[in-house]
Every structure is written in structure tokens, then in C-alpha cells.
Design brief:
By secondary structure, this protein is α/β, with parallel strands linked by helices. It has two domains: 128 residues, 3-Layer(aba) Sandwich (Rossmann fold); 101 residues, Dihydrodipicolinate Reductase, domain 2 (2-Layer Sandwich). Helix 4 links the parallel strand 4 and strand 5. It is elongated, with a radius of gyration of 19 Å. The structure holds NADPH dihydro-nicotinamide-adenine-dinucleotide phosphate and the ligand O=C(O)C1=N[C@H](C(=O)O)C[C@H](O)C1. The site of NADPH dihydro-nicotinamide-adenine-dinucleotide phosphate has 28 residues, from helix 1. It comes from Arcicella aquatica.
Length: 238
């Protein structure tokens, strides 16, 4: 497959290595300094774009891919408010758009576990729930996209929760997301239920970026020839 990397930072570089190991070619590595090279490429040169850039650039980058008529797998977080517009554009252009807050298989299993646990905890009103995410100090957005997906899973499956709040004490209808930035931590997510007498905790700890990158390359392999708006639950058939 011919892949364009839109965003060539920490993730772009790990994705490149995994894509090459899986026998793909990297047609272009685009970051903020050589954006014009992407405009110059013709759709016939590209099987899929993998976009991991910056919260402020993902919206324009994904629109540029859909307008060019090439499938795009996007992992950038922190731009959720513009995602519905991109999804509408993908449908209008009969294109293909894939997004996940987290491409790791382990985290996607954790998302399901979180929802299952929430369903079990729903009648147990003596517990208060919260989620914590810990990432490296270079991370631009807070809370993490993954923590938002976890909070959405809790809101869907617990009673009386309608929104999340970041690094502030929650009201009764809010899920607290506690964010911390420490050293080079690749990504840790914890869901905790606390009562007066005990505590239940589930966690996912990434040991590196390889899991995110492998999932993104598998998504790019999967999206070729498809039309529509997709996420990891389509790929993993959850
Ligand atoms: N969904 C998932 O599984 C995962 C998602 N992420 C998300 O991916 C994103 C990128 O993470 P990471 O690689 O660690 O970040 P980095 O800051 O290491 O890399 C971002 C890259 O994007 C480039 N960039 C900035 N603006 C543009 C633009 N307009 N066009 C093209 N490239 C641009 C930056 O260039 P320059 O350096 O010149 O500014 C840099 O090379 C974040 O939103 C992060 O949260 C991360 C891991 C997993
Ligand atoms: O910025 C990161 O590094 C990560 N971002 C994603 C997120 O915001 O959830 C996924 C992963 O946790 C790493």
C-alpha cells in the first residue's frame, strides 16, 4: 500500500516503522513545514493517509484528504467539536473516514470492559466513579481523547451521569476525569469506583506507542476500498 503520513512527530515515526515492516511504502511524510507537498500529490499516488498531527490542524487535514478523494485514518485527539462536520463531508463526498481516540487493541478491549463494569455497577449507588489519565508532558490536549471515550462509556451505562468534567470536583451528574502529565508516560487510563468500605479499579497501561501505531496501520489496510465513517468497533466487530 502507498501511505501518506500527515503529521510526522512521535506517532508518525512509529507508524512509519510498523508500516514499512508490514511491506507498505511511505509516499510522503508531511508536517507543518512541507504541507504544500501534500497538495501536490495526486489521488492515484495514495492508497490511504494516516493523520496524527495536532488538535488545531486535524480538521483542515482531514477535510483536505476527503476533498482529494483519498481514505483517511485519523488518530489526532482534541478536535472532537469538528468531527460531525468531517463525518458529513465524508458522506457527501462518498469518501472514507476512520477515527479512534485510541487505536490500541488493548484499549479497545478496555473500552468494552469499562462498559460491562459500568452495567454491573449501575445499581450500586454506594460507589462513586472517576477516571484518571496520565500522559507525557508534551501532550497538547487535556483530557486525553481516550479518557473522553471512557467517560462516554460510563455516561451511557450508569444512571444519573450526563457529562464529564476535567480536573475539577464533579457535581452529582458529572464524571470526573483527572489528568496528569508526567515524564514520558505513553498513556495510562484508570477507572475507579470507591465506596466507604472498598474500591474497584481497572486500568490500561501502554508500554510504548507501538500498540497505537499498529492499530492505525491495520485500520489503513482495512479502509482501502470502503466508503463511509468508521471506528475501531467496525474493524474489531465489537
Ligand atoms: N488515537 C490514538 O491511538 C493516538 C492518538 N494520539 C494523538 O495523535 C496526535 C499526535 O501525537 P504525537 O505524534 O505524539 O504528537 P507530536 O507533537 O509528536 O507530533 C505531531 C506532528 O504533527 C505535526 N503537525 C502540526 N501541525 C501540522 C499540520 N498543519 N499539518 C501536518 N502536520 C502538522 C507536527 O509538526 P511540528 O513538529 O513541526 O509542529 C508534528 O510533526 C495527538 O493529538 C495525540 O493525542 C497519539 C497517540 C495515539
Ligand atoms: O497524546 C498521546 O500520546 C496519546 N493520545 C491519545 C489520547 O489522547 O487518548 C491516545 C494515547 O493515550 C496517547
Amino acid at each position: 500500500m502507498n501511505i501518506v503520513l500527515l503529521g510526522y512527530g512521535k506517532m508518525g515515526k512509529v507508524i512509519e516503522k510498523i508500516a514499512l515492516d508490514r511491506g507498505h511504502q511511505i509516499v510522503a511524510r508531511i508536517d507543518i513545514t512541507n504541507r504544500h507537498e501534500f497538495e501536490a500529490l495526486s489521488p492515484s499516488q495514495i492508497d490511504a493517509v494516516i493523520e496524527f498531527s495536532h488538535p488545531s490542524s486535524a480538521f483542515e487535514n482531514v477535510k483536505a484528504c476527503l476533498n482529494k478523494g483519498v481514505p483517511v485514518v485519523c488518530g489526532t485527539t482534541g478536535w472532537l467539536e469538528n468531527k460531525p462536520a468531517v463525518e458529513a463531508l465524508a458522506i457527501e463526498k462518498d469518501g472514507a473516514f476512520f477515527w479512534s481516540s485510541n487505536y490500541s487493541i488493548g484499549v479497545n478491549i478496555f473500552f468494552q470492559l469499562n462498559k460491562m463494569l459500568a452495567r454491573l455497577m449501575k445499581p450500586q449507588k454506594q460507589y462513586s466513579v472517576s477516571t484518571t489519565e496520565i500522559h507525557h508532558t508534551e501532550k497538547k490536549d487535556s483530557p486525553s481523547g481516550t479518557a473522553i471515550t471512557i467517560a462516554e462509556g460510563l455516561i451511557e451505562n450508569l444512571e444519573g451521569k450526563s457529562k464529564w468534567i476535567n480536573n475539577e470536583n464533579p457535581a452529582d451528574d458529572e464524571i470526573a476525569i483527572w489528568s496528569a502529565r508526567e515524564g514520558k508516560v505513553p498513556g495510562t487510563h484508570i477507572v475507579k469506583y470507591i465506596s466507604d468500605i472498598d474500591q474497584i479499579e481497572i486500568s490500561h497501561v501502554a508500554h510504548g506507542r507501538e500498540g497505537f501505531a499498529l492499530g492505525a496501520v491495520i485500520a489503513a489496510e482495512w479502509i482501502v476500498g470502503k466508503k463511509g465513517v468508521f471506528g475501531m468497533s467496525d474493524l474489531l466487530a465489537f
